[in-house]
Amino acid sequence: MMKLGFFLLSFFAACALHAQGNLQFNQVIMVGTQPQTVPSGKVWKVNSFLQANTTNSNNSNSTVCSSTGWHSPFIMNGERYYTFIGLTTGSGNLFMAVGNHIPFWAPAGNTFQTVCSGDVLSIIEFNIVP
Question: Is 0.85 surpassed by the pTM of this model?
Answer without folding.
Answer: no
